[in-house]
Amino acid sequence: MDIKTLVLALALGNLSLCAALFFFEYESRKSLTISTWAVAKQAQAAAWFLLYFRGVLPDVLTGPLANVLLFAGMALDAGALWEAAGRPGWRRLLLPALAGASFVYLGCHVLDVEPGARAAAGFLIVSGFFLAGVGALALAWRSGTMLRRYLVVTMVALSVVVAGRGLLAALLPEGWSWVSAVMLQGVGFGALYLMMLTNAFGFLLLSREKLQSELARLEVVDALTDVPNRRGFYQALAPWMALARRPGMPTAMIILNLDQFKRVNDSYGHQVGDTVLRAMVDVCKKQLRDSDLMGRLGGAEFAIQLPRTSQADAAMVAERIRAAIEAMQVRAEKAIISLTASMGVTVIRADDSTVTLFKRVDGALQAAMLAGANRVVEAPDATFAEVEPL
N or C terminus: fewer CB in 10 A for the chain? Predict the structure, then answer.
């Protein structure tokens, strides 16, 4: 494949990505990351088409303008990766760097710098912006997947090849005895072609990986309150159920239910009800340790797991939570909402199953609600429960 065919392949490859991104989520609003990446591909496609028509179009279009567009596309590629990494402040660094790089490259044309040096500057600038995108991926190296690590290593290697091609263009414009200038140029453009493929497939695969990770998270996390849902809470509870069979400090369990929460939804709407639930969870978390776990079982019912906590201590924690919820005031559009909560408390016993544990603590919760609500009730102690009445 000759150089001109490679340039055409780069142009058509980026153009096809532009078309695919146009129809991607066509009927919904695209994320800022996807939008940035789409603009990057448009700039790169325009740049490679201009370079393909070198000798046909005016030199000012196929030289300075084409390369500045290419720099902009590579910089925006890096920006999309930083956006995906949760760093929206990338513009404060990359955009001034793009302006500076473009100024230097255009200055080389105005001053009629030797072509080999101009080519070296162009390859080094492209390599630098590509490495800037690698930096975004490398942020999560330790916790990253094998796909992310593969992309980091591959992109660094391609950046080195492109930068090396630029340096050799300046130092050895004619090549050397066994490597011709044409071969060096082919290596450089081949690396640029692989850059396009790696960036395109890498970005799409990482987006898919992120989506799958979010879907997996939502299977065990309540989207509204950002605490484990019933399934997630039961999964986290399982090892503590096993530990209850060993001697040591017990694990306590609290079941919490907001009193008359249905009245809030009926009177103010579900949106206000959601706000109340989020505020209540925040209030509860302030009363808990980092090792404690709160989960949503459904509706306005929540469970709290307290590792290495006796029933008496758990009752004290529950009372503290009850008082905090009672003092909580949530501002709605037309009112200030105050609520109370009823709670049942128990500890995990050695012979407990999930069914018996929740049946016992739910019984304590029902007793609290029947006794007038806004109170904490402890489940009967195991030793007391085993005594037969006379």
Answer: C
- DSSP secondary structure of 74-117: HHHHHHHHHHHTT-GGGHHHHHHHHHHHHHHHHHHHHTT--HHH
| Domains, the chain, with CATH or none | 3-219 (1.20.1070), 230-385 (3.30.70.270)
What are the beta bridge partners of residue 302? Answer: 256, 296
- Quote the radius of gyration of the chain (alpha carbons, Å): 31
For CA atoms 274, 278, 283, 284, give the dihedral sign. positive
Q: What is the pLDDT of residue 118?
A: 84
Question: How many residues belong to the chain?
Answer: 390
Predicted confidence (pLDDT) per residue in 31-84, tens digit = 768 888 888 988 999 999 998 898 888 988 988 999 999 999 999 999 989 988
157-213 pLDDT, tens digit per residue, is 999 988 888 787 667 655 555 556 667 677 777 888 888 888 888 888 888 888 888
pTM of the model: 0.68
Number of H helices, E strands in the chain: 14, 9
CA distance 110 to 108: 6
Residue type, 17: L
Closest residue by Cα to residue 246 from 347, 350, 346: 350
Quote the CA–CA distance of 218 and 356 in Å, as a whole number: 27
Q: Are 341 and 303 in contact (CB under 8 A)?
A: no
b (16+ CB within 10 A) / e for 303-331: bbbbeebebebbbebbeebbeebeebebe
Looking at the DSSP bridge assignments, the partners of residue 219 are: none
Cα separation of 308 and 347, whole Å? Answer: 10
pLDDT, position 173: 56
SS3 165: helix
Cβ contacts of residue 268 below 8 Å, gap of 6+? 332, 333, 334, 335, 337
- Nearest to residue 192, comparing CAs of 168, 161, 169? 161
CA 30 vs CA 5, 203, 376: distances in Å: 33, 15, 48
